[in-house]
Amino acid sequence: MTEVATARRSRITPEREAELYAAVLDLLSEVGYDALTMDAVAARTRSSKATLYRQWGGKAELVVRAMRHNKPGGIADVDTGSLRGDLHEFMSREDDCAMERNSDLMRALAMAVHSNPDLMRAFRELLIEPEMNEFQRVMQRAVDRGEVRADRPALEYIVHMLVGAFATRTMIDGLPPTQDFLRSYVDAVVLPALGVPTTT
Amino acid sequence: MTEVATARRSRITPEREAELYAAVLDLLSEVGYDALTMDAVAARTRSSKATLYRQWGGKAELVVRAMRHNKPGGIADVDTGSLRGDLHEFMSREDDCAMERNSDLMRALAMAVHSNPDLMRAFRELLIEPEMNEFQRVMQRAVDRGEVRADRPALEYIVHMLVGAFATRTMIDGLPPTQDFLRSYVDAVVLPALGVPTTT
What is the DSSP letter of B92? Predict the structure, then answer.
């Protein structure tokens, strides 16, 4: 949470904020981003639209902040001492059930960004970039430990590899992303691409 | 093209078929899958709706066949003698301009499959599975040549790796997939994951 955002929402209790975000995500999964209205959010949460706009500026930021609130944070703080350990830990932050729901919500957002430039901007600034920065820290530690060479080309493609796992699993295989699947993908694709041995 | 499909459309000349498919793809990029109607296709192509339904069964199959018609085929027939050569050749089948348009169209379809089960079925049977079968042949040749071990875990994730490259590049990086980008991704991710040296 940035300082600006915290200041802006200072009059809302954390409990109330969590309640609001949960309602927004319920609406998102029920009707999708394009059909989701601030009126519906106001009605569902017994808020005034003026309050919602004052606190979040608009639909895009409200939805993206709700999404971010819902995601387990702090992957960079997990330090197991090996890249394989860190990535496996990352894949285990959510149970399979939470992961399936979040993956559905992320897909709903990813679909909508193309036709909503303000959503695209919020999605990138508040969800993708912070997550990428955390990954950079995880990768930097692996480089510092000597596990990954600093000039390894796959370092540029971590997000591409992981997005491929989620997107293909859900949209083409038609299966939910599970911890088992993601850990096996890390061992089969991500670590070998980075030149890290995967001996168990 | 299956025998059944060829028989079903035998009264249409290949030129007329190509013209129809081009019109369908234009409409798809203009209005998206959900807003695309058989009425609009009929009007744009000066066909009767009855003809369209008789020849293609419905919107899902018509759109997917149009998409397939538009894609360069026969990747398995390209045999350069090395997996790296075959994959680079695959990434060069279309020029950057055609690749960007096809990638936009594929994204439009991929977004719509979730809420259209018949589109999902046609998309999988007519686009994904044939392409995956071709990749299997390319990979099998690499295994037969001794380039890739038959039990290499990444063999199961070829599609995941490639979809990640396309999806992340267009939706998160906000950049078009280019031949240069895709070849560099093949060298950085796909070949190392498969244990193939990428010395140039």
Answer: T
User: C-alpha dihedral over A54, A58, A59, A60, to 10 degrees?
Assistant: -130
CATH T-level fold of B3-68: Tetracycline Repressor; domain 2 (1.10.357)
Query: In this structure, are residues A95 and A187 in contact, taking their beta carbons and an 8 Å threshold?
Result: no
The mean predicted confidence, pLDDT, of chain B is 88
List, for residues A172-200, the tens digit of each pLDDT value: 788 888 999 999 999 999 999 999 987 65
Chain A positions in Cβ-Cβ contact with residue B160 (cut-off 8 Å): 164-165, 168-169, 185, 189
B74 in reach of chain A (CB within 8 A): no
The correct CATH number of B71-193 out of 1.10.20.10, 3.40.1280.10, 2.60.40.10, 1.10.357.10 is 1.10.357.10
Residues A140, A145, A147, A148: is their CA dihedral positive or negative?
Answer: positive
Chain B residues within 8 A of A194 when measuring between CB atoms: 192
CATH of A72-193, one of 2.60.290, 1.10.357, 1.10.418, 3.90.930: 1.10.357
pLDDT digits (tens, 9 = 90+) for A45-65: 999 999 999 999 999 999 999
- Per DSSP, the three-state class of A95 is coil
B46-79 per-position pLDDT tens digit: 999 999 999 999 999 999 999 998 877 667 778 8
Are the Cβ atoms of A165 and B160 closer than 8 angstroms? Answer: yes
d(CA A10, CA A1): 12
pLDDT tens for B143-168 read: 999 999 999 999 999 989 998 998 88
